[in-house]
Specification:
Layout: E1 7-10, H1 14-24, E2 28-31, H2 37-42, E3 50-53, E4 63-66, E5 69-73, H3 78-82, H4 85-90, H5 92-98, H6 104-109, H7 112-118, H8 124-132, E6 135-140, E7 143-148, H9 149-152, E8 153-155, E9 158-159, E10 166-173, E11 180-185, E12 195-200, E13 206-210, E14 217-218, H10 220-227, H11 232-236, H12 253-270
Parallel strand pairs: 1-3, 2-3
Antiparallel strand pairs: 4-5, 5-10, 6-7, 6-10, 8-9, 11-12, 12-13, 13-14
Helix pairs in contact: 5-8
């Protein structure tokens, strides 16, 4: 399908992008890689009157050490995450998950900021950020603010970003020698996950779930069980506690609950949980 008519503006700086967003109000949307927004526009599920292209703001594309954390610019492409030596050394889960997104064409165009700001519960990178305990830096006309990953995802395709704010940076703790794993079950390669699990073990375990609710979700019941000394199998039995997974043509809610338990167990065992 063909999107509804819209005005297109390419921002030459973050400041210009913020001004264009402010001027456009609720009818303005940011365009980075385009892999989240453009399909919605073609289906007429989104019809912004103004697209603000920030895809060429190179100063928002980086991966660098920041003390005991790693800072990632929001416009960093998936492929750059996948091949980053800094991430491979200090947050290998994020590098690995980026390498599982879509196909090479998607990974060379899509950005981590676009994936996170879209807030799709079937997306892999938001779950990885939840597991890692990421913090998101956003900027708008009122200045900068930090949002914990656990507070960022509010509802289906809904986040705590204000319409005139831009996600500018993702900050994740260095994981040191902590174990990690990413498990994803899908029918065909490159399909969205029917269920996915991103896991980090160690002193501060984190478990992020893909496609198990209206938002990307932390499996807090599993994390609590691990902190209490539960085995991988025992902790995994709590993977679907309190969750309401979706039902669609790919899987029933009951099947997703079962998959979550199986994949969490596999992830914890691969990550070295006792």
């Amino acid at each position: 399908m063909i999107p509804a008519a819209f005005e297109y503006r390419r921002a030459s700086s973050l400041g210009e992008a913020l001004q264009l967003l402010s001027d456009g109000g609720d009818e303005a949307k940011l365009l980075a890689g385009g892999h989240s927004l453009l399909p919605l526009m073609k289906l007429r599920l989104a019809a912004p009157s103004l697209l603000v292209d920030i895809g060429r703001l190179t100063d928002l594309s980086y991966v660098r050490e920041d003390g005991d954390r790693v800072a990632v610019g929001a416009l960093t492409r998936h492929r750059d995450l996948e091949t980053s030596d800094v991430l491979r050394s200090h947050a290998p889960l994020l590098a690995h998950v980026a390498g599982q997104v879509g196909d090479p064409q998607v990974r060379h165009r899509g950005t981590i900021g676009g994936s996170i700001a879209h807030g799709d519960p079937a997306s892999d990178l938001p779950a990885a950020c939840l597991a890692l305990g990421a913090t998101f830096m956003v900027e708008g006309p009122r200045g900068k603010r930090q949002i914990e990953a656990g507070d960022f995802f509010q509802g289906f395709l809904e986040t705590s970003l204000e319409p005139d704010e831009v996600l500018v940076e993702i900050s994740v703790p260095k994981t040191g020698g902590a174990g990690w794993s990413f498990q994803k079950f899908n029918r065909r390669a490159q399909d969205w996950a029917i269920v996915g699990v991103a896991a980090v073990t160690g002193a501060n375990p984190g478990i992020g779930l893909v496609n198990m609710g209206a938002t990307p979700i932390r499996a807090t019941a599993v994390e609590s069980a691990l902190a209490s000394g539960a085995s991988a199998s025992e902790a995994a039995s709590h993977a679907a506690d309190g969750l309401d997974p979706p039902e669609d043509l790919n899987a029933s809610a009951e099947y997703r609950r079962h998959l979550a338990q199986v994949l969490v167990r596999r992830a914890l065992e691969e990550a070295g949980a006792a």
